[in-house]
Amino acid sequence: MMFNSRRKLVTLALTSAIGCFTPLSMAAKSPFWTKLTIPNDAPAQAIGTYQAGCLAGGKSLPPNGKGYQVMRLTRGRFYGHPDLVDFIKGLAAGMDKHNVGTLLVGDLSMARGGPFVRGHRSHQNGLDADLWYNLEKDRPLSLHEREALGAYSLVTANGRTVKPRLWSNNHQQMLKLAASNPKVDRIFVNAAIKKQLCKTKTSADDDWIRKIRPWWGHADHFHVRMKCPADSPQCKSQAPIPKGSGCDKSLNWWFAKHKPAPKKKPSKKPVKPKPKLPYWQQVKLPKACSQIFRAKSKYFH
């Protein structure tokens, strides 16, 4: 009897620690899936969308590999679908082969995906990765450096051009290697970086430059988004990229002055604004995610 009681206590402690059976409704202030540090024991699957999804059978990217190093290890955001992990390893190996530099890897997804408490709205289904533009770290970084070092911006303060003293052909080569991978859906960069690529492109570059999409921010890193994998029927793709290289008049929009939206007329009756919920509480996740968050890890069977 005493042995059985102790075994129950140990089982209960482990269950509480990994949050396997915590109801979703109990995750009021901090969702329990953000505390899960081990993927569930299931075949790899990206589920849902990039902004509302989760990750089954996630794979961790080792902290060090040929041509790359993972930054901000304490965040625990180095998990992804095997397609994403293999892509990063392949990109780093290609950069090493062409003497482009060392790839510094930022956030991927959490162990089982899902929304973050703060920061990203995407990176939820194991198919997104932030990769830094820093290329000069050709030595092993200490754990302290991985937490303290920052990514530098390649874009001028006015947001219109790249910084000539920082931008190099190696940055273009890195983006080309990344975008040329057939499993990559698109890559988000700052509009000034897209403009720089368009300046020097030839017609032979159109296929990979088409995948490079301008977006807000992304001056100190680029955001890679993989296509939905063949093994993930519940993964929902983003709308297809428009035809063309993206170096046309549509790019000018990012550098034009936009009129501010007209202010709404104040209501006669004062209305008390409702408190805005954090993004993770607004997201409607696929039903499968609840099972993935609650599932046991293979390490605790």
From TrEMBL:
It comes from Spartinivicinus poritis. Its EC number is 3.4.-.-. Residues 1-27 form the signal peptide. GO terms for molecular function: hydrolase activity. InterPro entries: Peptidase_M74, Zn_M74/Hedgehog-like. Residues 258-277 are annotated as: Disordered. It is an enzyme of class 3 (hydrolase). The keyword Lyase does not apply. Keywords: Hydrolase, Metal-binding, Metalloprotease, Periplasm, Protease, Signal, Zinc. Residues 258-275 have a biased composition (Basic residues). This is Penicillin-insensitive murein endopeptidase. The lineage of its organism: Bacteria, Pseudomonadati, Pseudomonadota, Gammaproteobacteria, Oceanospirillales.
